Amino acid sequence: MKSRKKLKALRHQRARERAEIKKRSRFRKRKRNKRLLQRKADINIRRAIKQKPSISQTAPSNFSLIDNTDEVVAYINNCKKLLHEKEKVTIDIANIQTLTSDAIALLVACADDPHFRGKYGELSGNAPKDIKLLTLFMESGFYKFVRAHRFMKTAQKERDNLLHKESNFKVQPDIAREACLHGTQHLFNNKEPINKELISCLYEMIIEAMSNTNNHANKDKEGGTKWWLYAYNDPEGKTCYSFVDLGVGIFESLPVKIYKKIAMKFGFSHNADLVNDLLEGKIKSSKREDNNIRGKGIPQIANNSQKDIFKRAFIISNDVKIDLKSRRTEKLSNDFHGTLLYWELTKQGENNG
Question: Tens digit of pLDDT for each residue in 168-184?
């Protein structure tokens, strides 16, 4: 009798196991079919987009994020909007009259960031016709970061510029150190760092910029946003550093959003109202480890920017532009979805470093 019950129970167990196997098999099959259908739909959408004519977007004549902020931000935002509407977009900079290194860094970030391009949008572009601007554009290393003709990729001056995309979403001390030496050796025409205080100051600023991007630029997870660092050695005797990320922006990061809730009770109406508190270090990170690190983020960058060696220094993020030298704040009409930090080093003030 017991053996019959055991046999019956065993049969039921095997039947349940077979049913579970069939269930899992059906689930995998449905999942596989769903993927195949989605892939087929993606292919059809991409084919349809390829057949569309490209929408040419003429860039502002003064293509400088630092000097023509609102117009350039509006232009970039419009390109992003079209890309997210599944359009082919051509960034037309053929007839621009002014081009700066910060704008090149921004273009690389946009062209290389899938969140900017959207899932189906296609982005292409051209180069300036003006010989001087074309030289700056090609020597920047731009074509190493985008799809381009082999000639364009090889027509670069090696080591004259440093344009680095961090694909590992990390703070990179080696890249920061290389960028420091890259600029200071150009300024002082010396392979050995002759101003160690300047090197230390600049190194701190770049590391803080990397840390801020790593910790706060993505609202969903830490280390979810890439950054780009461009150090341009101008032949006229200056070095321009542009640090770009296309994250949520400083004023939409978690520490600032928490601070905003308190500021609402005291007449807060615009992100510009928070700039002084931001630069003075009154807006603290919610992360305990952030509050213990050397440098303290944006306040450290702001303080170091006051040194004489820095001719100009700016932060552009969301709807705010901050001149770190004068501490003046400009309210922007257009929202820059990300953060740009910019420093301009000159030989002037060498002995004050």
Answer: 567 788 888 888 888 88
